[in-house]
Amino acid sequence: MKSPENAFVKFVRDSIGEDGLSLNIKNSRWVNSNGFKCWGFFDQEQICVAKKNPRWIEVLAHEYSHFIQWKSGTPLYKKCFGPTNNYSDVVEDWLFGKDFDRRMVRRAFETYRSMERECEKITVKILQKHSIPCDIERYKQEANLSIYMYHYMEMTRIKSFKKDPDWRVIRKMPASFRSQSHKTVSKEILDIVEELA
Fold it and tell me: What is the Cα–Cα distance from 64 to 176, expressed in whole angstroms?
């Protein structure tokens, strides 16, 4: 009998394969996506995940959720990755030094955070549907932290963080998506995020 993780990998490979996409699981801790070091990415051609990350299966579920956003054409995803807008490019280019009107930067980050929050909510459903062993409360806390980090990136123009958050930092985050982390961030949470910069 297959483990839930192996069954999910096969499901993802078959599911995205129907649309001509590939699944690339790297035997590394990080992968590179447009100059950013990360645990995984989806780029409309593939899902790529670093398997030496201890929570790689959750990352795979997250990136598969971006695939779902893309395939179903959610309005937030289309605003971030076209054809409606390309707010993801604005966020990335601005972080790498390109200048934009301040209102455009604010709109791009707001939309990007909202798109990521939508993705995280899909991911929780995917993890539960496929019986992936996962602490869902901790996952939601880590998801909220990730979104809060985009607030900090917008405020400081920092494009990467020096430290990975440990469990003490993660457990200080809200454990539900009622927190509206894509809209506001408190000074207390910003102070926590700043410790990772």
Answer: 21
Select from 182, 37, 65 the least CA-distant residue to 132: 65
Percent pLDDT > 70 in the chain is 99
Distance CA 134, CA 59 (A): 12
Q: Which residue range(s) make up the domain with 70?
A: 54-194
| pLDDT for 111 | 97
Which residues contact residue 120 at a Cβ distance below 8 angstroms, ignoring those fewer than 6 apart? 62, 65, 140, 143, 146, 147, 177
Q: For residue 182, is it within any domain?
A: yes
Q: How confident is the model at residue 1 (pLDDT cuts 50, 70, 90)?
A: low
Total domains present in the chain? 1
pLDDT at 84 > cutoff 90: no
Residue 164: the pLDDT is: 84
Strands (E), the chain: 22-26, 31-33, 36-38, 40-42, 46-50
For residue 145, being part of any structural domain is answered with yes
Rounded Cα distance between 19 and 43, Å, is 13
What is the torsional sign of CA 106, 67, 117, 158?
A: negative
Asked if the structure places residue 15 within a domain, the reply is: no
Phi, psi of 142 (to 5 degrees): -65, -35
pLDDT in tens, 11-48: 999 999 999 999 999 999 999 887 778 899 999 999 99
